[in-house]
Records
---
Amino acid sequence: MTDSTLETSGLNETASELDLDAMLAMMRAAWTKNTPSYAQRMSDLERLRAGVLKHKDALCEAVSADFGRRSKHETLLADVMMVLDDIKYIRRHLRDWMADKRVPIDVKAWPARGRIIYKPLGVVGVLAPWNYPIMLSLGPLAAAIAAGNHVILKPSENTPRTSSLLAKLLAEVFPSERVSVVLGGPELAAAVSALPLDHLLFTGSTSVGKLVMAAAARNLTPVTLELGGKSPTIIAPDFDVAKAATRIAAMKLLNAGQTCIAPDYVLLPEAQRDAFVAAFKLEVRQSYPALATNPDYTSIVNTRQAQRLRGYLVDASEKGAQVIAICDGDQPGIDSNVLAPTLVLDTKPEMRLMQDEIFGPILPILTYRAIDEAVAYVNAHARPLAFYLFDHNKARRKKVLSGITAGGVTLNDCALHITQQSMPFGGIGPSGMGHYHGHAGFMTFTKAMPVFEQAFWSGFWLLKPPFKALADKALAFLVR
């Protein structure tokens, strides 16, 4: 979901003026000469933390300006705090993560020894999206720095003010041979993807992820893809439907639904549909009175995305769906990028909103007669980035979780698994590959290098030509 416009500001040139090959060569030479030590990594992370705190108000203002309107509280909560928590967790554990680890050696190789050394990869790339432009730029950056790498960061052109401010912040914290921020449009993202990097992490849509992977494959650059898709929510028959609606609404409407792990659709028993609709409406009206001018309710990032979402609603309505906009009479005008929270009932598979990731404040409601039917529906589609189950019955929860594979799961709430640094975050299949956050992020940008140390005396001399009776006896013992 990227626009074709190219907006740059201040600190870097446009894609056509950048010599990315020269930049990569400079950064790789600097890394080879002086690979960051533990002390350097800790210092870098602390200065990054201080830089984020210094610019936090300006970052909130830039994000709001880029979106047209975005809640400062949401930016502090979902962007700034997430980065600060990530850095804090990394710094607390980094010494242990970096330490060589002894590993057991097979008895046949005794008295040799083995260990794992954790080596940084070199120069890595991060391609960040627009929906959480701070967290999804600086979170992967922090992981890459913790692992001892130098980083080329390409933030989104769809949030140009935030991207420019991030470039300024990082230029204050890091010399350009350690972290370089490049600003530009899709052409520049494609050029970064094609560099012979040591690793590339991309966050964005599945369709663009395929292009990034194809470009990286030409250099055999390993990739981590954090994509999206349709994250389902199942409400069990005996779960408090009002409580589920309240928690689903909170996450669905965070950032106006422009979240890769937002609930994309809800599956619930037929008898509970009307109660869910009523509870969802109540939660919206309590949370966002006077919707059109409410500073707590985020705008859609640009007109193109708003038109895409309105197109989904027109398509659904024309194909027989019931579209319920929740706006208390102050429905924003058609030219506004503020889109009212909207429920869609009586959906059909051929509707566009049931085929594409919605990425906005629109929530289709589907019903089932038995929970196995809901599980089958989820499994009939691509494996999701996130899955949500509202159910207190442990046996049933276990059965449902054994039958569904997703990138991550939150039970009885939505999206909170992403806030836990002790848990890896990542998708599966069309929703992504690889993980980061916490230790998983460190390992993504690290080579775990095995080292086998032979002892002064080795039994392997028995197993080399010319093979004689002693070798026969040794092999007979080993393969029995």
Note: Residues 1-17 have pLDDT under 50 and may be disordered.
---
Amino acid sequence: MRALVASSFHVSSTRDVWVKIVRGLQANGVEAVAFDLSGRYTLFSFLHQKMEQSKRNLPRDWTPNTLAYEALLGAALFHNVDWVLVTSPQYMPSEIPQLMRKAGLKTAAMMTECPYEDTIHTPITAAAFDAVFVNDLYSRGLFQSFCPIVEYIPHSYDPTTSYPGAGPKDENIVFVGTGYRSRIELMKKVEWPVRLDLHGWFPKEWLRYDTELRKSVRKSNTQWPAGTQDTHVGRHLTTVTNPQETGEIYRRAGASFSIHRESRYVGTKDVIMDGEAYSLGPRSWELAACKTFQASDYRPELVDVFGDSVPMFETPQELGAIMKRAFDDPEWRDDLAEQQWEKALPYSCHNTMKTVAQVLAA
């Protein structure tokens, strides 16, 4: 069984998912050929922008998305694959998987943005594929209305990058992720007992130099990423980490926490409702695999998998109290981190990709 596994356009987040898919399929006997779309999309976006700036007319279908994805058909035929699996294909023109079908290829999609983008065109995109894998259990029924084969695949950790460390933990709390407005609003109200280290993507308009969060976390001795103490990088305060770097950050961290995304899309007030989201994000699994203590807001999957080993919070005050206890009582913190690690062990990408490998082999 041979499959071409295409990345998304993203240089972080879903890119980590793509790497896990490739490694997980390979561990299950699938000859997975990695195909990186990000460079092509960046190139075509740059050229498209230059053409528009010079006021040159372009054919309507010459979008960066289409030009980048068109290479998939040729690559699939060149590598003589049986399947083409596309990571996060919500911006992929449906004509391209239809062309693959005409060429005798089967296509699959790994939908990484469930349930946040379930209300736009993502389920319709699924209709162009032979099989679809969703990352939230509650999304499965919706996508079954558009595609005959739909399976829920939970997020996972990569055992080659997420594993326990041997050295001592730092006296810090880390957060790796996107600075959605709801997350920033919560974090700026927490009384942090130790230094807070932030890594990720924070829109400048949400996190200006004089915001309450920057003031409050400085009082807690917060460590901002290098080069961003007094300046911004482009439009965002950002330090994007690759999986290896994230693993190192987590292994050294004294504690961390998860605030699951509420907004459907960046910069909008449209939020998901109660009962729409079941599953955990990838950071929950990676933290546990690194044996780093974590707290989290509520998701049903958190309770189903971790039981009471992950302390939950609803308010900034509750999160602050959990973190204070974690550093006042290291034995309690380490015991829960051990339990979290044990419960997360079955959720390696090698195990979660077994279902995908079985669908491709059927």
Note: Confidence is low (pLDDT under 50) at residues 215-237.
